[in-house]
Design brief:
- It is a single chain.
- By secondary structure, this protein is mostly helical.
- It has one domain.
- The longest helix has 28 residues.
- The radius of gyration is 15 Å and the shape is rod-shaped.
Length: 63
Amino acid sequence: MSEWINAIVFGVGVVAFVLGISSIILAVISTKSTESGMQEKVEYGFFGATGLIVCALMAYALA
């Protein structure tokens, strides 16, 4: 049963990593210069950082 839990934790970590990196990339390549553009960059950055933190927590859980 432990192997199933490790597999699920690994899957969640990979998904969080991919979503985190893609959100950060979207924040960097956003070209809007209005107020809503800045809000979009901040939101993408927040979701990116959150995704990377969740990925780090899942890696710690596997260790």
